[in-house]
Amino acid sequence: MKLSHKQIEDLSKQFGSSFYLFNVNKLRHNYRKLHDAFKNRYPNFIIGYSYKTNYIPYLCKEMYSLGAYAEVVSKLEYDLAVKIGVDPKKIIFNGPIKSFEDIKTALENESLLNIDSLYEMDHVIAYCLDNPERQVKIGIRVNFDLSESNKSVLQAGYEKSRFGICVANGDFGSALIKLGKIQNIILAGIHAHFSTNERKVETYMEVTKKLCSLAKTHMCDTIEYIDIGGGIYGELPPEFGVQSPSFDDYASAICEVINNEFPYKNRKPFLILEPGISLVANVFTFIAKVIETKRIDDQYFVVVDGSVHNIKPTMHKRNLPMKIFYHQEDTQKNLHYHIVGYTCMEKDYLAFGVKGKLPNKNDFILFENVGAYTIVFNPPFIKERPSIIAYENNTYLEIRKKETLREFFHEDLYLFP
């Protein structure tokens, strides 16, 4: 997708001085590349797109049309999937909080339900006792140790993962006994969800081995799917300085494990992967207009009609890949400068210590790799949320309008005295 200052200026006049661009063709490329990497090595493969990563309805519908299941972690996301036409049998319901009504809906719709805690198990049992004529299938999210040489591999160095039913302390075994007493429950799946720092291939191999082992030991006659969670790397820009595994690297290692564990063609469970970041991070960009360039002592600040919340909600200090569209190419000086946003917070920096031609008023700055979590974490803070524009085959379509006061302070939610 090649853009010029004139094209961006025209889009700005139509959609606002800041907006997101969603490259639909790039999303399709990512999906097919990941799908083919695994499917060619293990035919019983399912992608469950992680809605929490980016639940723009247009994007989720596109994922479903490509063949992805909907992986949701709340009733809100579940209802969104149904609203855009996803077959409930192709919804994977995860997450640590589910009410009895949530579980009842999932069971009656024959969705793939993975229980995360013992209280959810009790909800399932209660439903089954109330509906003895109905046979239900569930999956169990399990928790086991993934440390390497007594060192945590988890995100932020946490010692223990907080998700799933613990294998080591006996809770998993007790749950199996309790569930086994209910005749109309079938244990059809086993699931794990670990957020790790390095997203290493070896970690996913270990997760797959342990899930396969548990399934063969405890669910040999009923296992239908092995769900290894998500979090794998996608294509990263060179600016990140990370040598990440490719889709083929992950697929080769993971599929080798599951093929070895289930060598017989007629007994191969489905392998489910729940990607989010790897599919959508690099398909969104954020474009913001330069409002002013100011000098304070010996430092230059470029003020844009955007915020760190639009591109880096965790406010990390690593600069994203970006491009600057100058309206007068030859007038800029090479300087060091910071790019800052519209909020009244000192830490509203979109980029630190940039070196290059200094942007001026009416230039535009495009920030890349902003498709994962950024949009869903974007808070209603100070200014309305910007438009989202889908780009496909040289056409632009507004898939989320810029908010107005009426949407920001919705009259069905707020009391106006």
From TrEMBL:
<feature type="modified residue" description="N6-(pyridoxal phosphate)lysine">
    <location>
        <position position="52"/>
    </location>
</feature>
<dbReference type="GO" id="GO:0009089">
    <property type="term" value="P:lysine biosynthetic process via diaminopimelate"/>
</dbReference>
<protein>
    <submittedName>
        <fullName>Diaminopimelate decarboxylase</fullName>
    </submittedName>
</protein>
<feature type="active site" description="Proton donor">
    <location>
        <position position="344"/>
    </location>
</feature>
<feature type="domain" description="Orn/DAP/Arg decarboxylase 2 N-terminal">
    <location>
        <begin position="32"/>
        <end position="281"/>
    </location>
</feature>
<dbReference type="InterPro" id="IPR029066">
    <property type="entry name" value="PLP-binding_barrel"/>
</dbReference>
<dbReference type="Pfam" id="PF02784">
    <property type="entry name" value="Orn_Arg_deC_N"/>
</dbReference>
<dbReference type="InterPro" id="IPR000183">
    <property type="entry name" value="Orn/DAP/Arg_de-COase"/>
</dbReference>
<dbReference type="GO" id="GO:0008836">
    <property type="term" value="F:diaminopimelate decarboxylase activity"/>
</dbReference>
<keyword id="KW-0663">Pyridoxal phosphate</keyword>
<dbReference type="InterPro" id="IPR009006">
    <property type="entry name" value="Ala_racemase/Decarboxylase_C"/>
</dbReference>
<dbReference type="InterPro" id="IPR022644">
    <property type="entry name" value="De-COase2_N"/>
</dbReference>
